[in-house]
């Protein structure tokens, strides 16, 4: 019953719905006691020849009234109890969603999307069932079962009632044992469903790659294996499930058997009438539902408990990024990195070591280096996606990053991540993500700066063109430029372009960088890139290698130094001029034709 204790907060909150719902159930149970009494009396009236037409009409009137009232009370308990359980589903869903939106990237690195989705759907549904059907079954089995037993004992025979109850304890012991088995099995079945969900999500997301490699068959086989596993685990649950009903029917059968044997003797010895024995067995028939309900109750409770524990596991996960802060104001000023050593959680290798540099307010800093050298790590630390051990490792305006309210801190940045993401909505809404009420002119201006305005006008519905799964497919460069427009629109204090120009051609890169330097006077820019041309105009360039700074200076200083920057820049410049010459040649040929 732990799940009921865990859900205590909700039952207290919905006290009135549950109290009135249970009152309605009691009224239904009382109404249901009437027909067997009437049947018994009619039969005795017939056998004793005392039944008059008027008496029969009254009995029929009572039966009709009981039927109408039962109908009304049934309707209301459903609305009250199932209504409350639906509200529980809503609360749990919202809490879980809030948790999801608050958690750090590490949380998502550790867990898979399909698994999280299974928690948010299947598990919440199971808990919701416990608070709805679970309450119904336990209330109904106690109320109807209790009322029937008491009526049997009072109106017919307490001895016969006791005899009929002899098999009941066996049922309680067995069903609670099945419940324990069910809990274990159900947890495994839900975990298997999470795996399957995850596989489906990943397969759909990766369908292009799968097709390109011709891996459809092996993907289908993987899916089949997981699907078979879900079936197998659910079959095990079903096997336990299947034990409930036959056990209950066996117990009821034993009760009937005992009642008929002992009841017949009581009729023969005139302790009860034949009509009373028929009423008694009709009541016994009415015990089938409360007993089945009791079985279902154990079943639902165990499912609810397994799912509630799975949900709690997620809800109890602490965010590894602390949210306490000391400074209410938004940060402003210079940014300083002084990192001794940093490694990503769960990764023993040092991602950054001895990294010290300053980004003065209003300046542009370029960060370059080989792939995996730690460029994005610096950005992610600055955005507090991860924290270093020492709070003073990164300061902004003279105070540690984590001294600021995290919302205020992040609001200072306009960030274009490497793996840019567009929502499945219009281009307009994607650009105006920070503030959907922005004027069209502001949105167009941001798009012009990102050199994407003309492209957008060429799309079927212009700025109202829907992108992503439900709309047009955009090129990598177009997606990048829309992401840049989204970051520029807020005119952030610090603009961060994390390898955000990689998919645009050299000329577009120059245009965008010129636009940025023209409009962002007094504002800070941080640009990481693989193409040296993207940072060549920066006030300071940092060259990273294996997590540490190996060169620093302006473009000219670094060229003069003759190190990695010089070599890479020269190679890239040569490649660029060759490409341009080749382009000219092709154009010339086309012109001759
Ligand atoms: N979330 C993470 N968890 C664990 N290790 C990570 C994580 N992100 C990056 N790393 C590791 O940290 C190191 C630095 O990665 P980072 O992404 O900063 O490199 P980068 O210079 O931005 O590379 P690229 O130019 O390819 O984007 C790499 O060895 C990488 O494997």
From TrEMBL:
Residues 19-303 form the ABC transmembrane type-1 domain. Gene3D superfamilies: ABC transporter type 1, transmembrane domain, P-loop containing nucleotide triphosphate hydrolases. The keyword Cytoplasm does not apply. It is found in: Cell membrane. Residues 330-571 form the ABC transporter domain. The chain crosses the membrane at residues 16-35, 55-77, 133-154, 160-178, 248-268, 280-301. Keywords: ATP-binding, Cell membrane, Membrane, Nucleotide-binding, Transmembrane, Transmembrane helix, Transport. It holds the Pfam family ABC_tran. One of its GO terms (cellular component) is plasma membrane. SUPFAM superfamilies: ABC transporter transmembrane region (SSF90123), P-loop containing nucleoside triphosphate hydrolases (SSF52540). InterPro entries: AAA+_ATPase (IPR003593), ABC1_TM_dom (IPR011527), ABC1_TM_sf (IPR036640), ABC_transporter-like_ATP-bd (IPR003439), ABC_transporter-like_CS (IPR017871), P-loop_NTPase (IPR027417), Type_1_exporter (IPR039421). PROSITE patterns: ABC_TM1F, ABC_TRANSPORTER_1, ABC_TRANSPORTER_2. CDD domains: ABC_6TM_TmrB_like. It is a multi-pass membrane protein. May be involved in multidrug export. Transmembrane domains (TMD) form a pore in the cell membrane and the ATP-binding domain (NBD) is responsible for energy generation. PANTHER family: ATP-BINDING CASSETTE SUB-FAMILY B MEMBER 10, MITOCHONDRIAL, ATP-DEPENDENT PERMEASE MDL1, MITOCHONDRIAL. This is ATP-binding cassette subfamily B protein. It comes from Salinicoccus kekensis.
